[in-house]
Design goal:
Helix content is about 75%, strand content about 0%. The chain has twelve helices and no strands. α7 packs antiparallel against α12.
Length: about 300
């Protein structure tokens, strides 16, 4: 129910931006286009800021940190690789973006800016914790503002019908298959988790606010904390992959972002992959957001 509510909010706000965009004054339109390129860094700061508070609230984070890092890294990378291989077989012409030295330099610049934004957000969070001050910050409203601005930009962007093809489903399907393969592989060297628990942790797709609460309710607070950390790291690894390889393998980068491609990492999709791939990110993110709580619940019920 929560996932449906969040998706509905995103669709309404995005549609509002799309239909209001052409009716805005030219001054406001120029302001939107000027602000959008920098919005992703603001969101990265918000991610790092919230991560510092989430990490501080966990019980014994040092014990679950290695497991969360391994699961996050393997599921993110496996989703990327499976999607790349799938498009290699199904649609070879669309696998790779253009290669140029200027694009490579731009990717390096974006990565450095992203790392600075993450460090700045983390530092602000650490200062707030040091001062025992909780500002009760919620990045969801910041995301909704960004999605409204994306809607405005899409109103002036010519999109072809290729994104409506069945091949777009390869992106979320690769995320599911890659996550399952990674969970199966991790089970053999993560001896403190059962196969069922490992698979449940792999089905969060970066949606840490949902997975942490759901697994706490369905299983235990320990597994819930592990889910929270796993999906937080999964989002961060996806952001790094996006900036490093999004310009070269856009669909694979979107697949690695999982459910976050429709909200938290949408700004990075636009910046590193291009506006053309925003619909791919939205469709994949919506599908995975709907499936994530269902798949996690089903796995634990087996």
């Amino acid at each position: 129910m929560q996932s449906l509510l969040l998706i509905t909010q995103i669709l309404i706000v995005g549609a509002l931006g799309y239909f209001l965009g052409p009716r805005l004054s030219q001054t406001l339109q120029k302001l939107v286009f000027k602000v959008l390129p920098y919005f992703s860094y603001l969101l990265l700061m918000a991610v790092a800021f919230e991560f510092s508070f989430a990490f501080h609230q966990l019980k014994d984070p040092q014990q679950i940190l290695p497991t969360a890092l391994i699961l996050a890294f393997t599921t993110t990378c496996a989703s990327f690789v499976v999607c790349m291989l799938a498009y290699q077989l199904l649609d070879r012409d669309s696998v790779q973006g253009k290669i140029s030295f200027s694009l490579f330099l731009n990717a390096i610049k974006n990565i450095s800016h992203a790392c600075l934004a993450l460090m700045l957000g983390g530092a602000i969070g650490a200062i707030c914790l040091w001062q025992n001050w909780d500002p009760h910050f919620n990045s969801w409203y910041l995301l909704l503002l960004f999605i409204f601005l994306i809607g405005v930009e899409l109103a002036f962007t010519r999109l072809d019908r290729s994104w409506l093809s069945w091949k777009i489903l390869v992106v979320p399907c690769a995320a599911i298959l890659g996550s399952c393969l990674a969970a199966f592989g991790c089970h053999y060297f993560l001896h403190d988790l059962s196969l069922k628990e490992t698979f449940a942790l792999s089905q969060g797709y970066g949606w840490y606010s949902m997975s942490g609460i759901l697994l706490t309710q369905l299983h235990s607070s320990e597994l819930g904390g592990m889910a929270l950390l796993t999906d937080l790291f999964r989002e961060i690894f996806a952001i790094l992959l996006m900036y490093c390889f999004g310009w070269r393998f856009p669909r694979s980068a979107i697949s690695s972002a999982g459910a976050t491609s429709m909200d938290a990492t949408l700004a990075m999709v636009k910046q590193s992959c291009g506006t053309h791939y925003v619909p791919y990110a939205m469709v994949s993110g919506i599908i995975l957001s709907l499936l994530a709580p269902i798949l996690m619940s089903l796995v634990l019920m087996l």
